[in-house]
């Protein structure tokens, strides 16, 4: 069993930056692919970014490429999402997710989810 706890959400102005963290419990963290998803009000949850078990592979949604960066620290069981040049359309609840497969799931199917953290970008 893996528990994921997100932190770092809040209110930020457009053009600003914010850093989200996801702390994971469980000794197998270093073998999991990790991802970030988001869900805006009235919309379906969407993929944001993901990272393979060793950080060697990273995928990004087109909407965040060049602005967001995912990273991980397996020694600390943490995955981080650095968000720059934020836009009002980035406003959403951001979820951290873990996949027991070591490589990024092509079908976006993840096994464990955090509770989410709200990010609000004001114009």
Describe the fold and architecture.
This protein is an all-beta fold and about 120 residues long. About 0% of the residues lie in helices and about 50% in strands. The chain has strands spanning about 5, 10-15, 20-25, 35-40, 45-50, 60, 70-75, 80-85, 90-100, 110-115, 115-120. Strand 7 (about 70-75) and strand 8 (about 80-85) form a beta hairpin. The relative contact order is 0.32.
Structural class: mainly beta
The global form is globular
Helix and strand sequence: EEEEEEEEEEE
Mean of residue pLDDT values: 96
Low-pLDDT runs = none
Largest sheet descriptor: 7 strands, mixed
Please report the total strand number as a whole number. Answer: 11
Oligomeric description of these chains: single chain
Note the gap between the termini: 40 Å
Helix content: under 10%
Total helices: the number is: 0
Instruction: Round the Cα radius of gyration to an integer and report it.
Output: 13 Å
Strand content: over 45%
What's the helix and strand layout?
Blueprint: E1 4-7, E2 10-13, E3 18-24, E4 33-39, E5 46-51, E6 58-60, E7 68-73, E8 78-83, E9 92-99, E10 112-113, E11 117-122
Parallel strand pairs: 2-11
Antiparallel strand pairs: 1-3, 3-8, 4-5, 4-9, 5-6, 7-8, 9-10, 9-11
Task: Summarize this structure briefly.
This protein is mostly beta strands and 123 residues long. It is built from no helices and eleven strands.
Keywords:
123 residues, 48% strand, mainly beta
